[in-house]
Each structure stands twice: as structure tokens, then as C-alpha cells.
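Input.
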Amino acid sequence: MTANRKLNEVLIREDGFSKTEVSISEGETVLFCPKKSSEHLSFEKIGLIQVVNDDSGNNLHPVVGGYHYESVDTKIAIKFRIIGEFLFKLIDHPSNYVTCKIKVFEERPLNVIIGEEGFQPKSLKIDEGTSIRWSWSKLPVPHTIFESSVCESHYALERKSQNLVIPSLTSDYTRKFENPGVYYFQAENKSGDLGDLCVVEVQPSFREHTVELLDNKFSPARVTIEEGDIVWFHWNKAKCSKKHCIYQIHLPSPDHPVDKAYLPVKNGFKWTSPTRNGMVCHKFEKCGVYYYGDICGNECASYIGIIAVKPKSSNEYLNYSEDSKKFDQSVVTVESGDYIWFKWPKSIPVSIRLDDMSLISERGRKKNRNDTELHKNDPLAIQKSGVYTFRINSAGCYYFNVQSDGSTYSITVISSSVQNDHKVVITDSEAQPSILNIYPDDRVWFVWDDTKRPHNVRQVNHANKSVPGGFISGSLMESPGAYIESFTTSGIFYFTSDNCRKILGAIAVFPEPTIHVVQVNERNMSPDPIVVYQNDVVIWKFDFDQTSDVVLVKKEDDLVSYSKIARDIVPRRYLSYSFRNPGIYHFASPSFDMTVKPEFLEKVNAFEKTVLSTVIVDSKEEYNTVHVDKKGFYPDLINIEV
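Output.
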């Protein structure tokens, strides 16, 4: 079931709002509805705008970036996601002096009851950021709940957590869901008997955050959000004795004069002029670090606020077609970090199992579980949930075997590499980690929290001397501070802090593994041979589905037996292999033999009418490692090619 919060209705009438104050909790929606009872009032020409009181309390100012609707001729639904007060007025209405205040209080969790018949409800569909409370009371035997996850290779549940609460007759557990995905919770009694299954589908959604301006600081001083999130900056005269005016700034340079205002960003977010009451709303669309300052009273404040915007994962949806009795895509192209969502009618049992994968990194490969480690629950409990998610953790090729409505077929997911994000923590004495390995175009977030000294980040050489034209975060900044830098080329980049030169860290940028495609058709295999590098993935792409995997030919006898030892696969158009070590590799497959026609065999690698594909794997190392200790260098001589 979709978890719907309370819907609060406010009528817009000839005399203004039907309610001048509405109290709700986070996540609830207010519906502004025109009540068209008079022909003399045209709702098409009446607008709705969010406002804030001026310092005197007699006048109203629009909230910069706030809610603004040109017409109230149709219903307007606004979902409030954060605690606070939101004031609205009508534009060009006879009673435009009347306001409606929406007071938003702390979220009330959605309730799930555990009884003798299991969970009620058994499934929920919510937005990320929503909380759920499971509770049970006066059960005959002590109960508890725990979280499970789906083993991708078996499509069965495996225990993900220990008991979330101590088994008891009466208890409860509350969880806030910060990330999208499908979550599984199971009940268990004291004897270890598994009970019902509760499925929580957390839909991706933008989030909202608040920053409060005080007379000498921003609270909090740094906010970490995701692309598409909204930040509300607010201040009021009940807490501020001084006037304030926030504005987006460029990070000041190390030699920025202390008595000079920070340079504002052209078309950046800002308030109109210093006031004791104010509110600014801004949506952050792109990844990066954003800085803002404050005009406090008549002076430019020295403190700086930070909004760190991280990339948001994309979501690819595969919907089930009842006409074809399959999912609507057989080949899906995504990026690493994305979510794959499989959705189907709950009345149709569907099984989705990860059959195989070829990845550029072993970090994305999970340990396969034995059957004995999995819960022996009814598999239909998962299959009939109607939704399943899979997070793509690494670039490469993923193959899913799907069973639905009596048929078995394959879905191929090809994932490309994207910019990855890494974190370096600056303390008052060191960088953690001191050496970070990344790929070109990756982003590194330098952060310092709870440090006694102000810090910045400056590029230096191995001797800790500044690099002319190198990266620098700007002037020294009190904690919490943050800086982001992308590294586009291979090499080793050293950095330090101007306020603690004994800090010396290094960013090592190595060439990134990639995916290569060999096209296989009736005329040839191209390219052949193909040259790749260590950790690269090769994909053989066919025009039609194939049923036999590739076989690595290690000795001459393999050319005779490969057709017998080739693994049978569910029909698909892609085969793949990942390479960890340099060398020359030959592959054979019945799929090659059945695709390339005999009359074209002379144009490809052939051995007794066997079609071979050759992959030359070169070393990707463009560097040599020298170890140093008190006895000297190891090795003490290195030969390099120019």
C-alpha cells in the first residue's frame, strides 16, 4: 500500500483563506482549493505567494525562491518536508491582507502493527526521509524483528541484521529511511520461528534542509545534501538582535583583505537587504561545494557557510508487460551507482536472479551465499511483492535470469564508469587517508571538522613546496570546512594545509579500466585481435540471442572439447569476460561457430573451422614503485621506456 499522510484542506474564498493557521507534521500535504461561489471573483487572476514579515511586523516581503503560484484557479498541493513556519498570502485578492500560516512540527512515524496474524500492513510505499514505527502489544510469546536482504544469486532472503530489539511481549522499533530501495523486515518469536514479511518500498525523492542564521554564525555551518535538494535559510528577530543578509560568494583567496567584503556570485542566491526577519530558499541542481556569507549589521561577517552537494544516483525502471509477459527491456545501459527497479503486478509471481557478471573491479562482486545460510521462507513472499531493486556498484556487465508466467529469459545490464567521490579528512596533524588512489575525473572531498586550527588545502610538490598554478581551496577557514577538487589526469598530486605544513597527503591518479566491444556477425568478428589493459572488460555483441558462453582456450585440447564444456546460458545477445592479468588470451564458443558463416572463416582466426577471438591484455601500469627504508631503495635501479 502507498503510505498517504493526512491531507489538510484550506479553501480560498471571497473573504480569503478558510483557515488562518494550520498545524501539520513533516511529510503532510496542504491542499489550497478555490471555492468558486461568486461570478464576480476570477480565480484565474488571483495568485498565491509565500511571504515573511518585515522587521516591524506590519508589512510582508516575498520569500526569495519560495512558493509562488500565478493562479489559484485549480487546486494547489504543497507537501511540507521540514519543521518550521510558512506564511502565505493571496495576490490581487480583495482580502489580500489575510494570511495563512502553516506550522510544521516533527514527523509522526507511520505505524505498522505486528499481531498474531503478522504485519499490518504487509507492504508500504514511502518517500525517502520517511519514518516507520513497528509495534506489538501483549502477544502470547515474545517477539522481535530483524532486517533481511535478498541474495542476488538465489533470490532468497538472508539475514542482514541482528535482532533490532530484545524479544518481548510488547515493544516497538522505529526506523527512518534515508536512501531509496526495497527493504525487507521479518518477525521472529523467541523459539526462532520466522513469521511474516514486511516489504518497504522507498521511492527516490528530493530532500529539504534548513540553515538558521544567528548573530555570529550559521547553524549548521556546513550542510551535506544531494543534487536536487532544497535548502531553506531563515532568521527572525526573536533570536537575532542584528540585521542579516545572506548571499552566495566565491571562496576568498588566501590574501583576501580581512576588512573587505567577499565577492558575490553573479546570479547566485541572496536576500534583498539586511533585516532581522528573512527567508531564502534555493534548489541545488549540480554537484559541488557552494559558499555563502552574511552582511551582519553594517559589516561583512567573517564566518562562511558551506553547502556540499553530492551527486544523486539515477534510477532505471523496468516495467512488466502483461502483453509480452516480460519486462519491457532486455538490454539496459546505466552508470555505476545507479539503481535498477524491477516492477510487476503483485498477482504475477516473478523471480529475478543474478546469473553472472563481468566487472572492472572486484569491489562490486558480493559473496555468494550457500543455501543453508538463507531463510527457508515462502519464496512467493518476495516474488509477490511486485518490486525489486538492484544497486549497480561497479562498471561492467550484469546478467539477470528472470522467470515469470512459465517462461525464463535474460536481462543484460551494461554499466559504464562515472565520476566517483572520495573523502579526505584534514585534522590538526594529518590527512586521513594520507594516500588516496583514484581514477581520472574522480572527485575528492577535503573536509575538516572539530579542528582547533583553521585550514585550507594547497597543492605542493614532494618537497612540500607550493606548486605555481596548482589547486588551492582559498583562505584559511575555521571548521567545519570543505573543498572539492577533480583530478583529470594520471599522476601523483601532493597537498598540505597552510596552517600545518607537516600535513602532507597524496592523491594517486591511475588509468581507469574500461569496457570494450567486439561485434560478432555472420561476416566477421571485429576487432580481432583486440588490445585491452588489465582490469578491462571485453563484451562480445551479437545480433541475435546466444545460448553458449565463451571458453578460454588454455591448451590445444581445449579446441576439441570447448563445445562440450561451454556453459549453457539463458538466451542473450551479450557475452563478456574481465581480465586481471596481462597476456594473450584466445576464446572459443559454439556461439561464435553458429554466427560466423563458413565461407568467411578465412577472414578470421581459424583452427579446423573453429572461430577464435584473441584478446591481448597489456599492463596498465604507467608507474614503478620504489620502497624506501633505512637501508636504502628497493629496487635501486629502474629501467623505463620513453
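Residues 332 and 413 are 5 Å apart (CA to CA).
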